[in-house]
Amino acid sequence: MIEIEVPGRGTYRLKHLVLDVNGTIAVDGRLVEGVAKRVAELRRSVEVHMLTADTRGRQQVIDAQLGMQAARITPRDEAAQKASFVRELGGESVCAVGNGANDAGMLREAGLAIAVLGEEGLAVETLNAADAVVPSVTVALDLLLKPLRLVATLRR
Fold this sequence. Notes:
Layout (H helix, E strand, L loop, with lengths): L1 E5 L3 E5 L1 E5 L5 E2 L2 E2 L3 H8 L4 E6 L6 H8 L4 E2 L5 H12 L4 E5 L5 H6 L2 E5 L7 H6 L2 E3 L2 H9 L1 H8 L2
Parallel strand pairs: 3-6, 3-8, 6-7, 8-9, 9-10
Antiparallel strand pairs: 1-2, 4-5
Helix pairs in contact: 1-6, 6-7
């Protein structure tokens, strides 16, 4: 578990990290450099989950690179499926990271929501659902690995 006390917000007790794949941890079907190392480090503290519809057809390669298997979502109503996944984990104990419009619901359900403004952009509804917005997925993961950075951003 990762425990982060943020003045004016309370204490986050994170047991799960839910990562969108396409556009967040992968661009054009390829894992973003530096993600594998950070995910391996985070797996020592939290249970890491990946959600994907595998639109690029490369999820098997990404799974092998990370040593874990992504949860597949079906092409219809992806947003609801992602939100339900986070809710079933116990939303308050989840940090969700995403960038696309279909990630907004999972960010709203999560105790801690991080939106990534990466190479594929960032959907406005996902931006509005976020607690923090970062320029890359590696920065998002570093916020969890170095929580004082997150405290500096979120404290009131």
